[in-house]
């Protein structure tokens, strides 16, 4: 079971890493709020025909839990991405990578506060090792550079985004029993509706940029690969091993993003990038070894 979860979560974070590259490539081809709107519009256009029959079967459950699903779609899908793109206008990609590295710790803390789920010392060590790997990537191999970073408005709102997605990861355990098609369709619909005010704001401000040919290609990747496929994989991985363990894989996102930048954008590969990947994977292995032992011990007690 855990091997399936690892494969799903590795592919998830690879797609999310590709999203950061797509975000870099999208500059000058499509504006941020247009991207947010298009990604969920495309997701809904794909999921509605695909999952219509299943959606009708699950309608009684969807109707009973519409508020929870709306909160999940709004917080985890729309608001996180709106804040993410906005934060990058005020702060650096380095700061954003560092701030996202706090998600695993936040997920563990929220699970403990609200559900009394404990983490072992080895899991916490693993988390710290993965965070150091992210810091190594973000500082381009020189952690001393982190002391020179300036905290600003972008960093403040990015912390809100990190809290939102951490909460989303934890609250997924409360989602109703639904077929994955119905779940993703419902969350995408909620994200589409709640993205409209942000699109309207960008248009009213005169900052909206409709996609050109390159923008459409990037929107298709983000809308299908990132908005549909990766979310299905993350939700399933979360189901298999829980939010504490699944959340740790999020620290692979900046690593994969950096490596994909080397392959796609042509950035030069550096030694520290390979070392960071080893640290993050090693940290995940440490945490997962302990996590599996705790899961087996809990299962034996039942």
UniProtKB/TrEMBL annotation:
InterPro entries: Diverse_Substrate_Transporter, EamA_dom, EmrE-like. Its main location: membrane. The keyword Cell membrane applies. It is found in: Cell membrane. The chain crosses the membrane at residues 32-53, 65-88, 94-114, 121-141, 153-171, 183-201, 213-234, 246-265, 271-287. It holds the Pfam family EamA. Residues 5-137, 153-286 form the EamA domain. This is EamA domain-containing protein.
């Amino acid at each position: 079971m855990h091997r399936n979860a690892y494969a799903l979560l590795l592919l998830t974070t690879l797609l999310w890493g590709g999203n950061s590259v797509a975000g870099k490539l999208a500059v000058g081809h499509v504006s941020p709020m247009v991207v947010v709107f298009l990604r969920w519009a495309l997701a809904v256009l794909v999921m509605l025909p695909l999952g219509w029959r299943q959606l009708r079967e699950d309608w009684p459950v969807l109707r009973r839990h519409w508020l929870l699903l709306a909160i999940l779609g709004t917080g985890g899908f729309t608001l996180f991405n709106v804040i993410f793109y906005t934060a990058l206008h005020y702060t650096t990609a380095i700061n954003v990578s560092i701030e996202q590295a706090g998600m695993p710790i936040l997920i563990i803390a929220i699970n403990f506060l609200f559900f009394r789920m404990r983490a072992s010392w080895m899991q916490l060590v693993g988390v710290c090792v993965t965070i150091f790997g992210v810091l190594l990537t973000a500082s381009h191999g020189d952690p001393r550079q982190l002391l020179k970073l300036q905290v600003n408005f972008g960093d403040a709102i990015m912390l809100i985004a990190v809290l939102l997605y951490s909460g989303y990861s934890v609250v997924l355990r409360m989602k109703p029993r639904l077929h994955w098609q119905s779940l993703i369709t419902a969350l995408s619909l909620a994200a589409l509706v709640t993205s409209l005010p942000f699109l309207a704001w960008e248009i009213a401000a005169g900052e909206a940029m409709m996609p050109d040919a390159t923008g459409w290609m990037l929107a298709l990747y983000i809308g299908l690969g990132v908005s549909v496929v990766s979310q299905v994989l993350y939700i399933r991985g979360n189901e298999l091993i829980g939010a504490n363990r699944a959340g740790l894989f999020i620290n692979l996102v900046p690593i994969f993003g950096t490596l994909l930048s080397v392959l796609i954008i042509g950035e030069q590969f550096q030694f520290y990038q390979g070392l960071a990947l080893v640290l993050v994977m090693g940290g995940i292995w440490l945490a997962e070894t302990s996590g599996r032992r705790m899961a087996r011990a809990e299962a034996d007690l039942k």
